[in-house]
TrEMBL record:
PANTHER family: THIAMIN PYROPHOSPHOKINASE (PTHR13622), THIAMIN PYROPHOSPHOKINASE 1 (PTHR13622:SF8)
Protein species of origin: Rhizophagus irregularis (strain DAOM 197198w)
Name of the protein: Thiamine pyrophosphokinase
InterPro entries xref list: Thi_PPkinase, Thiamin_pyrophosphokinase_euk, Thiamin_PyroPKinase_B1-bd, TPK_B1-bd_sf, TPK_catalytic, TPK_catalytic_sf
The enzyme's E.C. designation: 2.7.6.2
Domain Thiamin pyrophosphokinase thiamin-binding: 173-239
CDD domains registered for this protein in UniProt: TPK
SMART domains hit by this protein: TPK_B1_binding
Keyword Kinase: yes
Pathway: Cofactor biosynthesis; thiamine diphosphate biosynthesis; thiamine diphosphate from thiamine: step 1/1
Residue stretches spanning the membrane: none
Upper taxonomic lineage: Eukaryota, Fungi, Fungi incertae sedis, Mucoromycota, Glomeromycotina
Chemical reaction(s) catalysed: thiamine + ATP = thiamine diphosphate + AMP + H(+)
Record's keyword annotation contains Metal-binding: no
Length: 248
């Protein structure tokens, strides 16, 4: 069985010891306060292939950085984008796209844009997405952001990144997660969201399990602790991996 490896190497990436050599990613700024230090945000921004604000995400970018960072696109139903922010970014060359459908969120509308760009570029592979601001604030928004990890799991890798958490989906199968314990951990969790139950086998954690059934109302692994740099997880259905982040 194929083993899927996740390797973010946050420290190397954020210290810019090395130019980012991972797969190219697209940065989506969601409508939440941007809580990173300037250095970290700068690195996330600089290394992105394309930068997109989901509607009111642009307000935060503008308020936080006073127009230093100009996104390629602002997209959404534009019910959150302030007029002063719209005018400023428009004057700086940002493409502002109104998509008024009320069946999908502005996050999803931004991902639709990425698919459109990939078709235009006739790309055979899909860009990874790094979405910031996905896990704070409104619970329905947080769940919707996680829902899109499931919906798009066969299409591309999406990472939800906040100042405190990294969240991504593990599809059914075997995974090696290479953790950078300078920044990731100590706590982590495996969440069988959207499935009836998952049968899990793990190594590298303080509380490992072997062929154990995990489901809400029975047992879920939260407040677990990384004890190795490499965590292995085997699951028979998709589950959510979450790890605490402590940026120094
Ligand atoms: N409080 C929040 N917590 C987590 N994610 C959020 C939150 N607010 C917004 N987002 C994310 O940012 C995106 C853009 O925000 P925006 O406020 O424009 O939302 P929306 O999709 O128009 O939904 P709504 O109209 O219900 O607010 C959302 O689609 C969502 O992914
Ligand atoms: C069953 C159902 N529930 C809620 C919505 C509303 N909704 C979902 S995404 C979205 C866009 C937010 O900008 C809105 C308004 C719907 N359409 N269908």
């Amino acid at each position: 069985m194929e083993v899927v490896t996740f390797n973010w190497k946050f420290t190397e990436f954020l210290n810019k010891k090395d130019h980012f050599k991972g797969s190219p990613y697209i940065l989506i700024i969601l409508n939440q306060p941007i809580q990173y230090s300037n250095d970290i945000f700068h690195t996330l921004w600089e290394n992105a292939y394309l930068r997109i604000c989901a509607d009111g995400g642009a307000n935060h970018l503008y308020d936080e950085f006073k127009g230093i960072y100009i996104p390629h696109y602002i997209r959404g139903d534009l019910d959150s984008l302030r007029d002063d922010v719209r005018h400023f970014f428009h004057s700086q060359g940002t493409v502002i796209q109104l998509e008024s459908g009320q069946e999908s969120t502005d996050f999803m509308k931004c991902i639709d844009l990425i698919s459109i760009k990939e078709e235009e570029e006739e790309k055979s592979s899909k860009y990874d997405v790094l979405a910031i601001g996905a896990s704070g604030g409104r619970f329905d928004h947080i769940m919707s952001n996680i829902h899109y990890l499931y919906k798009l799991k066969d299409e591309r890798k999406i990472y939800l990144l906040s100042e405190k958490n990294l969240i991504f989906l593990l599809d059914k199968g075997k995974h090696n997660i290479l953790c950078d314990r300078e920044i990731e951990g100590p706590t982590c969790g495996i969440l069988p969201i959207g499935v009836q139950r998952a049968i899990l086998t793990t190594t590298g954690l303080k509380w490992n399990i072997t062929n154990v059934t995990s489901s809400f109302g029975v047992m879920i692994s939260t407040s677990n602790i990384l004890i190795n740099d490499v965590i292995t997880i085997e699951t028979d259905v998709p589950v959510i991996w979450t790890v605490e982040l402590q940026f120094k």
